[in-house]
Design a protein that fits this description.
Distance between the termini of chain A: 29 Å
Strand content of chain A: 5-15%
Strand order of the largest sheet of chain A: 3-4-5-6-7-8-9-10
CATH architecture of chain A: Alpha-Beta Barrel
CATH topology of chain A: TIM Barrel
Helix content of chain A: 25-40%
Oligomer: homotetramer
Chain lengths: ~280, ~280, ~280, ~280
């Protein structure tokens, strides 16, 4: 009885992000949480910070249900300039307040190299969004920051290209990079994107970096968030990022994929047996 | 604590394959096995039947490791006319002999409407391959057969188109249709295809038909078969189809994605905790 | 001043469909028309044969506007079993009548290996549809027919896979194969498919077979048929297949992409300067 | 004889980039050149500026062959941090010197919002690369610049998303936006990308902005640059961007798709009849 040997080629020109550089998995320690270790880390919260009440309510809800990290967007990349663009620094302050209230570390997106310094004064993890995966000045900028970086996969990026982007961050000296699979673009119409679950085991074989799955953006569909989260955990993901909104029907963005507080409690309960089955813990 | 309600629209023009026609899941009973019920059904065996020794050895191996159904191709769709095209009827006879030896029912592909009658005298489940998903004369032909049909998703088919193909079979009177997700084509290069795990929960929400995941063709990579199988089971798949070859390095086709007997034993052991975690059984 | 040398690798395992087998372009002669020669051949007509009046009216219209071949479907592959499936042999007879009336040769689809003999008694060119590109029994069957075969590219087929399918036909002895690019599936939503114009020059470099572009299925949009036809001709296509319906708004299928008689006249006029610019003729 | 009416829906939430805002085509005047008018504008030059000799030689070659604009990268977005990243400001100075020498205006990429001011002191057109299509801070920044912007389509962007990005620039007050189709990602392996020729007629129907086709990046294959350029012009493109290198085999990037000087002369000669056929001029 043997496990199949790794048969995926390690990209040759990548030096730091690959297993040949670091055979042990990278574990990112944050406030008692270990991303990439035994834990399955749940990052939950609203798509965007909309108001003090909304973000505090969301933070308390996700904390009580067992999430370890609070997510929330202050700078929002939107398809059109006329859509809500986020509260900016005001949103960062509200996130920090929610952290003070709940003790949950914060992950939030940064979009502009010149704003990295500002965002890292508030955030615990800097998120690079899918549209900015190959925004190299931004990657270099967060590579010089003192906070871990969560790098989302580009909508049509290959895994090797994505690792090349992690390399940009690592090469600047920031070794705390988390990879986040958030779905790739296909012809399928029911889902907003197609979650490439194979990204988790592939990255674990050829890289030492932790991998998070985001089934909210990956499917765009509330009822699919749970099943895809379970799939990701079963395939070895180190965590799940999930959108939770106190009142999804009133959300300024991504309401259709956000779980309500009651749905998020169900979600947390639903994933527990799978977490146990892969010998991990929340 | 509530589960999110189904928010995926049921395709309006499909009558028989959808939940509005049949709210209970279809369970296909076969030789004491229930596909679509509590069991997670494992269909295992070689890509193609190559010889009496090979198929018997494979059948015994997969039976002993706990598989419930034997897979093997007698008619093989190959990219080029010069590749091994399968043993034809001789292959069907060898499969039947393996069934006699082990008691495992057989699933095998049929490619030509005029051969359906021949194949169903040997096979327990008729497989429609990905290249023939929209081969409508073939679908009508198996729709008139007395054996269950496993319908693989086309390489670039949407889920609604795939259900439309199931409808062709159901409309001819054959109600025993199994859907098999085998990966879709994307730009990713590491994997042969991208397994769309969301197909399982989506189909379970909008259709009553059982769903099988095929991580062997879905990834084309031996070391990914286990992780993707676990992902599929966690997301609710009713079974897994997996290629096993007594000697993968000598396989006439798909050796790179076939598990060895020892690897298959590991696989069967590896998926058990996930099966338990979703309250199902082998 | 030099033309760039061919830098596209010829697929090694393909023997007959490639330039290394036949350095001269294949020219298929049919009723005074030369497909693959100096002419740009226009195949026009309705998606499906609906009635005697419709097909005769369409045939006269396209003939008068300058088309050289009449297209029309008698056996229609449809996404659902409840859609109009074509008139079958009755449709073939009406096509033959339209040929008698106008002198235009007929191209029509065959879907079932057992119907090839029937279809070739009526048709001048046998069409293999996109859904059947890798229907190998069907390819072998038309490979034994006495009529030229037009092989549509599969919706997500690579060019090398498509050539492999041509090889199936050639290997059975039928050397008159026409390749038809009809659009591939992408994430773009405005068009039904994305016409891969590069297919024409690529095939001309690595193969000797004629290439037709089908902008009607390729775009699914009436106003794009002309621009994409001109693009195809400019890139070296040997012909264009275009849907024309006497009354598009009443069409039983594909009305949205069918040109009206007046629009088809405009189309024929519009492509002429491009045909001249590449030193070809209608 | 009538042209089919526009049957492509104008995206409702886009205000400035659409035909309903401006029914006349936008014409961008630059140094006697009119982009979006009768001319077909050729932008040619090396992928990246490598040295004084290289860029001057390239500029003279493309000028003599008839190109109207010089392209060349000073800031290069590369998949890995270890690849040549461009000469930076030194590269901009060399481009300006080449402009002084030849009179050709310069188009060059800007990647960082904080560098827009620097780049526009040298460049005549600011290019936004495919990886930065949805880099919204960058779009806003060039939207406040005084130079025209050429916006490349993202590798997997829909046309409506791409127009949304143009809207970001227009909304900041910069009305001189040029759209550049550079190929989208598909499963096809022979070409680096698939040029979506339909983008040109679609944009012309629903938007007033000029459209350029880039067959060099679109195909990644030297021998396909000419055929795809001709296709683009035939479909109505307002110009072509093409990579030309004095010595393609020594190029620091994209040598495989760069034309040599002799090949570029052939190219310019080859496209002339098509330009005439669509009633335009160089």
């Amino acid at each position: 009885m043997v496990m199949p040997a790794c048969d995926i080629p390690i990209p040759k020109k990548i030096k730091l992000a690959v297993r040949s550089y670091e055979s042990q998995k990278t574990i990112i320690k944050l406030n008692g949480i270990e991303i990439g270790g035994d834990q399955v880390v749940i990052m939950a919260g609203p798509c965007s910070v909309e108001s003090r009440e909304q973000v505090l309510e969301a933070a308390i809800v996700v904390k009580e249900a067992g999430a370890q990290i609070l997510r929330g967007g202050a700078f929002k990349p939107r398809t059109l300039p006329y859509s809500f663009q986020g509260l900016g620094e005001e949103g960062l302050k509200l996130l920090a307040e929610a952290r003070d209230e709940t003790g949950l570390p914060i992950v939030t997106e940064v979009m502009d190299p010149s704003e990295v310094e500002l965002v890292e004064t508030y955030a615990d993890i800097l998120q690079i969004g899918t549209r900015n995966m190959q925004n190299f000045p931004l990657l270099k900028s967060v590579g010089r920051a003192d906070k871990p970086v969560m790098l989302k996969r580009g909508m049509s990026a290959t895994i090797n290209e994505w690792l090349g982007c992690a390399e940009y961050i690592l090469a600047e000296g920031n070794l705390d990079v988390i990879m986040c699979e958030r779905g790739i673009r296909t012809f399928e119409q029911i889902t907003r994107n197609t979650v490439d679950i194979s990204a988790a085991p592939i990255l674990h074989m050829i890289s030492h970096l932790p991998v998070i799955i985001d089934p909210s953006h990956g499917t765009g569909t509330r009822s699919l968030v749970g099943p895809l989260a379970k799939a990701g955990i079963a395939a070895g993901a180190d965590g799940i990022m999930v959108e939770v909104h106190p009142h999804p029907d009133e959300a300024l963005c991504d309401g259709a994929q956000s779980l309500s507080p009651e749905e998020f409690k169900f979600f947390m309960n639903d994933i527990k047996p799978i977490i146990g089955a892969v010998n991990r813990r929340l």
